[in-house]
Amino acid sequence: MTTIKQLLLIYIFFFFPSSLASIISGEDGYRLWLKYDRLNQQSITFTNYVPFAQSWYVGGHSATSKAISDELEYAFNGLFGKSHRVVQQNAKLVIVYGADATTLYPQHARQLSRLNDEGYLIKIVGQGQKQKVLVLANTDIGALYGSYALLRKIQTGTNKAALNLESQPQTDIRVLNHWDNPNRHVERGYSGQSIWNWHKLPTYIDQRYIDYARANASIGINGTVLNNVNANAIMLRPDYLKKVKALADTFRPYGVKVYLSVKFSSPQLLGGLDTSDPVKTKVQQWWKDKVAEIYQEIPDFGGFLVKANSEGQPGPGDYGRTHAEGANMLADALKPYGGIVMWRAFVYANEKNEERSKQAYSEFKPLDGQFRDNVLVQVKNGPIDFQPREPYSPLFGATPNTPMMMEFQITMEYLGFSTHFVYLGPMYEEVLKTDTYAKGQGSTVGKVVSGGVFPYKYTGMAGVSNIGMDRNWTGHIILQSNWFVFGRMAWQPDVSAEEVAQDWVKMTLSNNQKVVDSVTKLMMSSHETTVNYMTPLGLHHIMGTGHHYGPAPWVDNLGRADWTPVYYHRATKDGIGFNRSPSGVNSVAQYLSPYRELLSNPDTTPEKFLLWFHHLPWDYKIKSSGRSLWDELAHRYYLGVEQVANIGEQWNALEGLIAESQFRQVQMSNLIHLQEAKWWRDACMLYFQSLSGKPIPDDLAKPQHDLKYYQSLTFPYAPGQGH
Ligand code: BDP
């Protein structure tokens, strides 16, 4: 006889989703790459490093030196199960900075003097029992970075002999841009609410703020713009400045400075003035007073980020003034305190009737040299808007006298929100390694940004944050790697995306060789995969309207032509692509020779940008494959989906080698990813087919639904929109 209990068990077994039937335990992603899980006592890494963990010393008495000690104690207890802080004379690991470093280790003083304030040296000296590890720096922040670098070396199982390191950041300003609103909604955020709890600040300091600062410091990020570029003026109100101060105080020991996005019309909105015209004395005075008030609260405040005269935001253009006049007014107010202005070049105006990809260059190139020396112009990596793939913005390399600061998007607005498995390292790398030829060959975008081509006074890189209140911070475990790689590339623009991916996998998932090899491989091809099923061959801006979720290449009726997908792909029965060559809108003229000439001709244009720069007939022959353009497009859309299916399979093969919660989170996202990749493929194929009239090659699966079905889908609650 079957008892009721047995029946219940049968019911639970068969009818309950498996994820509910068991409690998933273990690492859930909160600890990011700072896990410090116990090393195997038999491992070389353990025996190599355990003596240092047992006997370490941190010099100095600053809050930062305490942060270093706290981190080491926590990390060593985790990694080795033991940790002993000792007095300097006996220590086997010595971390000292400033005068201590040069007095105690004069033999390294010269090398130290060549490093900037944030740089560090790691040395392994002596033999046998006398062997020591030294972390030396000019400042406590340098020592902090050196300590995190040492911990990374241990976490990634680096041979002790490879510990002789010298490193310093190649850009000055390495900031996250949070598009977070005061109501905690994150514009283009897919990881939950904003981590800033403005309501409970300034008194309540969430542990997340400290862990956020630790994570940033560990990858060299030294600043954060707390609020959305579509700024709310309230951030400058005295009560909000108190809240900002509380965050600044929390982050300070970790070398993370606070910046604010400001609304250009704040003098009117907050100050009750009747204008915000930057040449008016009363407006200038309002900003001076406001800045003085900020520095009263936050003596090391970083400065302002400004989105002006763009997508409805107010700006100097409202008064017939230039971007330089607007930026300079703010720069003058900040200058006495060492603050800077990051003025965004993401502007495109309707009135000008110029092709959108050309507008930022047309607007800013003529202003080169007109900005104060504490202004950086912040440019998105490509000339349009964070598309899955764009050529670099021609502003990089075009302004010898105005620092161009890179703006990458870390959040995945156009790359699958937080369910697609996409590592952005290769995309950042592709941009940074492209040659601008600004001063002959080798003038890569990375070099321009880090001041190696023109001697910019300030250099910087900004990343639009993907962080939210989700337990795992970024909504998807793999997407933590994009925060990580952004920091690493801002520090060192020519670091290899692959090396960084390996470090991240080892620190976040596992040191198991199979996991490291397999996940790194998947990560390295994941961006190309996404481009394949979203926007192959240089297509761009064919996503859903407003929320930007999923494909909608058919949209042709928005407020502005240059918001519609049809403006960008220009597909007709004769062909597809945007003619930006000299016979078209000639945006290639904004690039320097020989890149310009290369892009002018479809035969020499890299295939990845083919339809970005050229309008071509459907039977145009693709060089690399010999296929017709139509067949190649189909091939790539289908390949992309196959590649996503492969990500799922490869990931599943790692079950048991990765903590269960991490494993399951990615596994579930992979299912959504595959569905959405098919959606992109089928919707785009059917739509383009409706124009080309060409068949989907016989060997490829037919789309699941008809075009009307895809066109009928609506997503009023897709995350990340507006306010
Ligand atoms: C677009 C986003 C929009 C941002 C804008 C910007 O859709 O939410 O405000 O960029 O960067 O890509 O200012």
Automatic annotation (TrEMBL):
Q: Enumerate the catalysed reactions.
A: Hydrolysis of (1->2)-alpha-D-(4-O-methyl)glucuronosyl links in the main chain of hardwood xylans
Gene3D superfamilies reported for this sequence: Alpha-glucuronidase, C-terminal domain (3.90.1330.10), Chitobiase/beta-hexosaminidase domain 2-like (3.30.379.10), Glycosidases (3.20.20.80)
Q: Which InterPro entries match?
A: A-glucoronidase_C_sf, GH, Glyco_hydro_67_aGlcAse, Glyco_hydro_67_aGlcAse_N, Glyco_hydro_67_C, Glyco_hydro_67_cat, Hex-like_dom2
Domain Glycosyl hydrolase family 67 catalytic spans what residues? 154-473
Q: Which family does it belong to?
A: Belongs to the glycosyl hydrolase 67 family.
Its assembly, as annotated, is: Homodimer.
Q: What is this protein called?
A: Xylan alpha-1,2-glucuronidase
